[in-house]
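Course exercise 7: structure representation. Students receive a sequence record and must write out the corresponding structure in token form. The form below is the worked example handed out in class, using Cation:proton antiporter (814 residues). Read each field label carefully; the graders check that inputs and outputs are placed in the correct fields and that the protein name is recorded exactly as given.

STUDENT ID: A-19
EXERCISE PROTEIN: Cation:proton antiporter
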Amino acid sequence: MASIPISVLGVALLLAVVVAMEPVARRLALPLSLVLVIFGTAAGFAMDLSSHPLGASLSLSSETFLYLFLPILLFETAIEIDVRRLLEDVVPIFLLAVVAVMASTLVIGFGLANFSSYSLVACLLLAAIVSTTDPVAVVALFKDISVPHRLTLLVEGESLFNDAAAIALFSVLMTMLTVGSGDGSDAIFGFLRSFSGGFLVGFSLSILATQLLQFLPGKRMAEVTVTVVVAYLAFAVGEYGFHFSGVVAVVVAGLVFAYDGRTRVSPKTWSFLVGTWKQLGYWASGLIFLLASLRIPGLLADVGMADIFLLAVLLLCALAARGLVLYFLLPMMSAVGLAQKVDSDLRLVILWGGLRGAISLALALAVVEHPAVPADVKHLVATLVTAFVLITLFVNGLTLRPLIRILGIDQLAPIDRFLRGRAIARSLDMVKDRLVVAADRYHIEPAARERLAEQYSVRMNEAETVLQADHAPSPDERLRSALVTTAQREQLLHFHNYHERIVSGRIVRNLVARAYDLEDRAKSEGQEGYEAAAREELGFSLPFRLSAELQRRFGWSTLLARALADRQESLLVGRATIHSLLQFAAERIPEMLGAQAADSLAVVLQRRLEAIESALAALRLQYGEFAEVMQVRYLERAALRIENSEYQRLVDEAVISREVFKDLLRDLDARWQLANQRPPLDLKLSPKELLVRLPFFHGLDSAFLESIVPLLKPRFIVPGETIIRKGEKGREMFFLASGAVEVKLASGPRRLGSGDFFGELALLTQAPRAADVIALAFCEVLVMTAGDFASLLARNPDLQTQVAETATVRLGRN
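STUDENT ANSWER:
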């Protein structure tokens, strides 16, 4: 066993190698991971030949790979994902990840079993190992060529759950191979148990951890430590405690932190936390590639012609399995609306970019080191997995960029080339003007001034020539580009508000996700798509409708009150953002895309603003007091931000001391905490309070009113919701305590307001509903069942007469 000093020396040298390979990778225009594999493999051969003691010290086991490095790599990837958008695409991501892994495992496993004498379980085990993908190159490519954000998210999410599903399946198959029992149904049940159990472990631990963060305000180091503890604890508890998938547990824990954790800490702490995990991920990925590649020479020992033949079968089957997902499963999901359509060129890039990396090597090592695995299976896995990983890295990895170049995916669109030319011309013109000021400041001689000015004049003329010869964009192209630019600007404004502590992280996540959707729809569908996304932005989301349904069925109002408060805050921020975008459109768009595009953009933004104002008016009408308090809090946060900036300016100019500055910040932080505490929203859905507002029940004695209260169920209705549908059987009647509804009669629509009742005709006549009734605003209604309504009328003849008179009038209208 190697001594600790030698091991420490070896790790330090490996980290130094990772840093030293950065400029080499940049100079060769190769991925860093590929350069590390080349170096590691060469070093492994050298150490094997020389029997150097350092090689033994760096020969880490597969458990070290998995338990030390894997939680870092998975958590670091998960914590940076836009979980709000991920939830919107959870169905296609789940299908692409889990179904793709199963498809890959089955195609490769049965393919190898048919062309070899190895057992089906051994072949399926090897197939699960090579089903883990490394999407780094493809994601980096997508960012370079500016594909829709949703597509990048699909690939990132698919790769994250792909690893989790593949490793969970690997664990089940490994148990079947070593224990020697079980069949296909046992494998499926074991996989589902491992996957779902890991999900529950990761979710439970991360929820507990996010709740713990509220007891650590301002303790940045402790808050980051909580995330490290959760990552490793989720993996260990999942694997050892319950024999679930530790990988799934880590992934889920990271996603929960990405979604909820950032709202529990300050923006600066979150940035520090993400930066810390990026650093840990950089170390872990570099070390795992080097350490894994050091083992490659040993894994490739005793390669024969039979192995080469099976390697060819493996390559073909892997390509076919991935093609099955991309060219059959993904288009099928796109056809039914579950996934965004992906162009054939991009699908070819994703197909060819299915690189395998160090995780596959680590899983292969786990098979090689297991004493219960037969020797021939160890040889199969070690040889084929190692060779397969090297081929994907060196063949696919090195040919990916030429493939992109051949397909022309890396070329700028015509409108982007036009904008590039405008940006160059405008920037050079500005530089030329400012050169005069800089030359005066630094006392540059006239000859040097003229020489540099002439160089910039030549560049300006060249830029103008290219701009005139290039494609002149149409008005529609200019407007589409303006809409995309504005959506990107909107994202920056939301992030700025978050970092300035004007808006909470929870609200900003939703707003940024919507701005991403605006950008994607503008890119793919132009103005029509942008405006459709803007309308959807003001709709009521699925969580909002679920909270309303919980209130309706069980009387739970807390979630609904929170959803309404979130809507109020989002609309306030959205209104302020649109005003900023209108100014941006007037000042910056004309110089790049022309006045016509700026004017058209202003019209689109003005329509968005009017829709937001209308939605805010509906909330103010129902909850005016809360709306006013929210605006005061919003303005108060802005005032605190200004106050903080002023204190910073005073200390930077040495007007106040650091001690005074710290004391001022302590006072400021206390007021920040108060300003960030959103007041509760009272839905005012108490049946007794609503009953008092209804003229229908005025004049009744208090004892009778008390007996009516248990018969009435409060219900919250959102604008546009259909309360009654024409033709359905009447089972309830409604008393409108506040709001307005429209009755869609054959003779024309009729509006009812606060104090009115409706739905009684179907109960009295036993006929189907005669008309649709749709909410025009937020409504608070009291609902009474048919039986209770009949009992009420029987107990009070005056009410019975009043209802009969109203019903007679309405029957006449109908």
